[in-house]
Design goal:
The chain is mainly α. 71% of the residues lie in helices and 3% in strands. It binds farnesyl diphosphate and magnesium ion. Its cofactor is Mg(2+).
């Protein structure tokens, strides 16, 4: 079979890949392509409006190379690449949003938005994928959808822009919380570089965090949606609640799994779950759909933090880009140790003493190493990852290719979270 036939046969059997692979073909065959939302494509200089079936697009493709085939196969599994062309301008907007005239404040607030230290932008990726995953087609005649200045196109663009705002708000709140967290934890490093507090001092780090929050709330206000304003305000309250719960535990609460999970929800899962819900609220979905979006974010967030807590024991400082064994050194007891206590109750007594004596840290790590604690924490993370997948599988059926592809990407993200090593 010739190259063209092989590539087309492959694309026919993987329709969801089709338009995405066209984007990659541009690099190889000089095929032009535009629109991250795939509302229209330009293939070999010819504009094709609206969403196209694989068969329709097939007619426009010429001269595919073997390289294109390989690229198409490789791209199938990467959820990040699905929204990468939207993440890049979003990152630029974030940089411009945190600009201010006071030089020290500008460099402090922009610190974790600089190239190379902006992180994986995991949250914006989840939120943009969720936006497409919930993109139930508007019930209007298809002729309107194809009109160059059509109402539907404009409405969809406007909705997408508002959903991108949620992603930007979420990322600013996340970075603000990290700046404050590093002050509270007296952290030296973050994302493989000096933490802001260690570089510019606690006072400026706290002020930069406050500044980011204020900028996030300006964007939030621009959405003119009271329900979402309340929701996001509640998220900030949750972050503070979770952090305070962690800081002020009684000796009984420190060894209580339920307390740990509640704190974990407030500290980590609330931001992503409520932001997913906000994405859904903007599309005016049913309450059931918004709850499923929330459930996905909640279970993904819980799985994420459980793995984070495992990695604090199993990762190296170099791989994590921040100190390992940080939790136990701060007297914070996480899931692996809580499970280990069930096998070695005497570990509970060691943990209750606090860690004034450094030898107790070694003793606790020794018990942990002999227990199933790490594995059981990973199993719990897996359970939450599966619940996140269940929420996606429970969304109303939809056979739109972009919707299906984004839902698959959200499912794939749960696997990435479980398997991550940094
Ligand atoms: C990381 O925890 C920290 C958080 C997930 C949230 C921190 C929240 C606050 C400091 C409350 C203030 C909030 C705002 C919005 C200003 P970690 O120490 O377990 O993780 P790490 O290892 O990445 O530091
Ligand atoms: Mg910390």
């Amino acid at each position: 079979m010739g190259t063209r036939k092989r590539v087309c046969a492959f694309l026919f059997s993987n329709p969801g890949l089709y338009q995405h692979s066209i984007a990659k073909l541009r690099l190889i065959n000089g095929v032009d392509y535009s629109s991250s939302r795939r509302q229209f494509s330009v293939v070999n200089g010819e504009a094709i409006r609206g969403k196209q079936t694989t068969e329709q697009l097939y007619k426009h493709v010429d001269g595919l190379s073997t390289g294109a085939e390989v690229t198409a196969v490789k791209d199938q599994l990467d959820p990040f690449s699905l929204v990468s062309d939207e993440i890049s301008p979003l990152t630029d907007r974030l940089r411009s949003m945190v600009v201010t005239e006071v030089p020290k404040l500008a460099s402090a607030a922009g610190y974790f938005f600089k190239k190379g230290v902006e992180g994986k932008r995991f949250r914006p990726t989840v939120l943009l994928l969720m936006a497409t995953a919930l993109n139930m087609p508007v019930s209007m005649p298809s002729v309107d959808r194809l009109s160059p200045t059509g109402v539907i196109d404009n409405l969809e663009t406007e909705l997408r822009r508002r959903q991108q705002c949620i992603a930007e708000i979420t990322e600013m709140i996340h970075v603000a919380s990290l700046l404050h967290d590093d002050v509270l934890d007296d952290a030296d490093t973050r994302r493989g570089v000096s933490s802001l507090n260690s570089l510019m001092g606690n006072k400026l780090a706290v002020l930069a965090g406050n500044f980011l929050l204020s900028r996030a709330f300006v964007v939030l206000a621009s959405l003119e949606n009271d329900e979402i304003v309340s929701l996001i305000a509640e998220v900030v309250e949750h972050l503070i609640t979770g952090e305070t719960m962690q800081m002020t535990t009684t000796s009984e609460q420190r060894l209580n799994m339920q307390y740990y999970m509640e704190k974990t929800y407030y500290k980590t899962a609330s931001l992503i779950s409520n932001s997913c819900k906000a994405i859904s609220l903007l599309t005016e979905q049913t309450a059931e759909t918004s709850t499923l979006a929330y459930d996905y974010g909640k279970h993904l967030g819980l799985a994420y933090q459980l793995i984070d807590d495992v990695l604090d024991f199993t990762g190296t400082s170099a791989s994590l880009g921040k100190s390992s064994l940080s939790d136990i050194r701060h007297g914070i007891i996480t899931a692996p140790l809580l499970f280990a206590i069930e096998e070695f109750p005497q570990l509970g007594e060691v943990l209750q003493r606090g860690f004034d004596n450094p030898a107790d840290i070694d003793l606790a790590l020794d018990y942990l190493g002999r227990s199933q604690g790490i594995q059981r924490a990973k199993d719990l993370a897996l359970k939450h990852a599966r619940l996140a997948v269940k929420a996606i599988d429970s969304l109303p059926e939809n056979d739109d290719e972009d919707v299906r592809q984004s839902r698959q990407a959200l499912v794939d993200l749960t696997k990435i979270v479980i398997k991550r090593t940094k």
